[in-house]
Design goal:
The chain has helices at about 15-20, 55-65, 85-90, 115-125, 135-165, 170-190, 205-215, 225, 235-245, 245-255, and strands at about 40-45, 70-75, 100, 110. It is of the alpha+beta class. β1 (about 40-45), α2 (about 55-65) and β2 (about 70-75) form a beta-alpha-beta unit.
Length: about 260
């Protein structure tokens, strides 16, 4: 194997990235008209770990009897580059799913980043986030922990374990070690309490379960359950199964996506 030599100035030459739509530049690439339904919320997403957080949240709100939590759900096919269309980029200039529009407000409110969306909905309806300073702060601690830690699992472990062109020992070892450290952290926390931020189910559980719960249940990367020896984390597994059995979680995972194509 030829040793990689760092160039003085990096140049984009990755043909695989070109085919997948990844580029070192941001912004819209083509004109696009996204459909807009009649529900208060318009959700443009995909069934990825980040993408499923918002349907689950909206279904949890509906289970709680909240009025005004109905939503229209549309597929943004990131493999085809839908996220680079002009309408989507206007909602999320970062071109990542999910993106949410609250059209119950005038003018409408556009929200991107899954953590921001969860917090917006929790605060709008005063649900799934504690109102006392201690509970709220702990919930936000863990919400932001997931946002910061998740890329080590997805873009790190998941990419090199499941999607890289060939196995590479150094990055797999590095990101597996960090992923297992995070799993061990969650297992230790859940040994002391029922939910991530205490004894109450919150948006922190929704955010973290969508990544780590799904990983613990063997739903993210084929072969990862055995590779990560997930039986080592009984408290995390118990919590993962308990969240998976929630009716709203099941409805969120089974929500029907509509096409954005006319």
């Amino acid at each position: 194997m030829t040793k990689y030599q760092l160039p003085n100035v990096w140049q984009w030459e990755d043909e695989n990235s070109k085919r997948s739509g990844n580029r070192p530049t941001a912004g819209e690439r083509f004109e696009q008209r996204l459909p807009v339904g009649k529900a208060p919320f318009q959700l443009y997403s995909l069934g990825t770990p980040n993408g499923i957080k918002v349907p689950i949240m909206l279904e949890e709100l509906k289970e709680l009897g909240v009025d005004g939590a109905d939503y229209d759900l549309y597929t943004i096919n990131i493999g085809k580059g839908d996220q680079f269309g002009s309408d989507f980029v206007k909602i999320n200039p970062n071109s990542k799913i999910p993106a949410l529009v609250d059209q119950s407000k005038s003018p409408r409110v556009e929200i991107f980043e899954s953590g921001s969306i969860l917090l917006y909905l929790a605060e709008k309806f005063n649900k799934l986030i504690p109102t006392d300073i201690y509970g709220r702060t702990e919930t936000l601690n863990w919400l932001f922990w997931q946002i910061g830690s998740g890329p080590f699992v997805g873009g790190g472990f998941g990419h090199f374990f499941a999607y890289a062109p060939e196995p590479m020992k150094y990055p797999i070892d590095r990101f597996t070690m960090e992923t297992k450290r995070q799993l061990d952290l969650l297992d230790k926390v859940l040994a002391e309490q029922s939910y991530i931020a205490g004894d109450t189910y919150t948006i922190a559980d929704i955010a973290i379960w969508s990544w780590y719960g799904r990983l613990a249940l063997g739903k993210l990367y084929k072969g990862s359950y055995q590779f990560l020896n997930l039986d080592e984390y009984p408290n995390l597994l118990k919590w993962s199964h308990r969240i998976a059995e929630r009716p709203a979680v099941q409805k969120g995972l089974e929500a029907e996506y509509q096409s954005i194509e006319e």
